[in-house]
User: Fold this.
Amino acid sequence: MLVGVLLAGPAAAEERPAEPDGPLLAWSVGAIDVVDPEPRTLLSIEWRYQTGRRVPYPWLALETTAHDQFFAFGMYGDLPLGHRWRFTPSAGAAIYQQNGGLDLGFHLEFRTAAEFTCRVGGARRIGVSFGHFSNAYLGDTNRGTEFLKAVLIVPMRTRAGTGGASGPPD
Assistant:
């Protein structure tokens, strides 16, 4: 973390790229049960809202395996690590719909994650996310599971006058 703080200082003097202002879409694909012998594919789309300097920001997500779905919501921070890199911790809850797949033990799961992304091509970012689902022993069992995903973050618009994509024309 100290390295990130030290790298962020010199980057402040450089010209900043277009920053997101408003909604972001985070598309990801990866695996859930990554520390188990048989990981499963996990697909997700996440809507994030970001504006100004107020942290944390809200997020909503739909995540699915071949058999199970998570309808999730929570809060995240989007912290710069130098000129191009971001660290994004998040926490939230999910309504878990089991259809014969993961068997996590309860319909309410809590999700924590850490994401590292790099800015590519304007305000878009690519990276990796590692996280955990757990029901905190609210159910009869608390098997929990980890996920690892590749992430593509696309802003729906950027701040005016920064050279990035803008929203719809007036």
